[in-house]
Amino acid sequence: MHGKVSIQTVRKTIRQDPNTQKEIIVCPGGAYATLSAFEGEPVARFFAGRGWNASVCEYGIEEKARMPGPLLQLALAVAQARRENDFVAVCGFSAGANLAALLCTRYEEASRLLDTKPEAVRPDAAVLGYGVYRFPAGMVPQPAEKFGQVSGQSDRLPKCFRPALRQTAQGDRLDFEALMLEYAAGRQDPSADEWRSLSPAELAGPETPPAFLWTTREDTMVPPEQSLFYARALWAQGVPAALHLFSRGDHGEGLAEQNPESHFWPEMAHSWLLALIGTES
C-alpha cells in the first residue's frame, strides 16, 4: 500500500522559506469521508503568517482512508518536512486530529512500513482540535444537515456520507462515528484490536510527542471528554500536554473566528509551540 503513496499529492505547501527551520503540517477533518476546506489551508496560512513553513496533508478519504494508508501519507509528509526543517509539528481537527495523534503514537510502526528511521517520521509536537482519541467514542448521531458542518458544504447529502445515514423516529440522522470506522477500518463493527489501533489514547508512550489540545463544552458531535482521554494518557506517561476546554462553541470551528471565546486558540497554540521549541533548543 505504501508504495502507492505519492508525497507530492498529499503535502500541499502553503509556505516554504529556507531561512525558516520550523514547519507545521495541517490535517483537515471530515470523518475520513471528505477534507474540510476551512480546517486546512486557512489554518496553514495562519501559521505561515506567524513565520512558520506550513503545508496541508491531503490524505486519502473514503475507500482510500483505510489504515494504514493515511497514517503513511502523513508520515511521508513529516519525513519530507524533516529534511527541510529542524522542528516539525502536526495539526489536526476532528478526524484529522485522530490521524495526527495516531502518527504521534504509531510512528515506529509507520517507520517500519516505510523502511525509514523512526525519528524521520516522528512529529516534534501536535496541535489537536476537537478530535477522537478513543473508540468507542460515544458520538451522538446528528441531524442529516449536520454534514455541512463537517464538509464545509451546504448542498444535498454527498454519496460519501450515505454509509452514516440512519432513519430514526426523530428523522434522518448521521452516525459520524460509524462513518469514520467505515472508511478507516473498512467496516462499522471492528474487532477489539482494530478499535485499539485507531485509539491514540490507548497507544501513548513516554516517547509520544507533546500535544496542545483544545475543544468546546458545547460540542454536540465529539464528546469533549475525548480530549481529556488523550491528555490524561500523555500525562500518565510524563509527556507534556496542554488541554483547553472552552465553554462555548460547537464542533467544526476551525480557526473559530466567529467565537469570541475560542478564537484565541491559534495564538495560544503558536505561543505554546514557541515555548516548546525554546525548551528543546
Key words describing this protein structure:
single chain; 281 residues; alpha/beta; 7-stranded mixed beta sheet; 3-stranded antiparallel beta sheet; 10 helices; 10 strands; 35% helix; disordered N terminus
Description of the structure:
It contains 10 helices and 10 strands. The protein is an alpha/beta fold and 281 residues long. It has a 7-stranded mixed beta sheet, with helices on both faces. The chain is globular. Residues 1-8 have low confidence and may be disordered.
Strand order of the largest sheet: 1-3-2-4-5-9-10
Sequence stretches where pLDDT stays below 50 over 5 or more residues: 1-8
Largest sheet: 7 strands, mixed
Distance between the termini: 37 Å
Helix content: 25-40%
- Average pLDDT over all residues: 92
- Which band does the percent of strand residues land in? 15-25%
Q: What is the overall shape?
A: globular
The whole-angstrom Rg is: 17 Å
Structural class: alpha/beta
Strand-and-helix sequence, N→C?
HEEHEHEHHEEHEEHHEHEH
Number of strands: 10
Number of helices: 10
Secondary structure elements and pairings:
Elements: H1 7-10, E1 11-15, E2 22-27, H2 41-48, E3 53-57, H3 69-82, E4 87-93, H4 95-114, H5 118-121, E5 125-129, E6 142-143, H6 147-151, E7 165-168, E8 171-174, H7 176-184, H8 192-197, E9 211-216, H9 225-236, E10 241-246, H10 265-280
Parallel strand pairs: 2-3, 2-4, 4-5, 5-9, 9-10
Antiparallel strand pairs: 1-3, 6-8, 7-8
Helix pairs in contact: 3-4
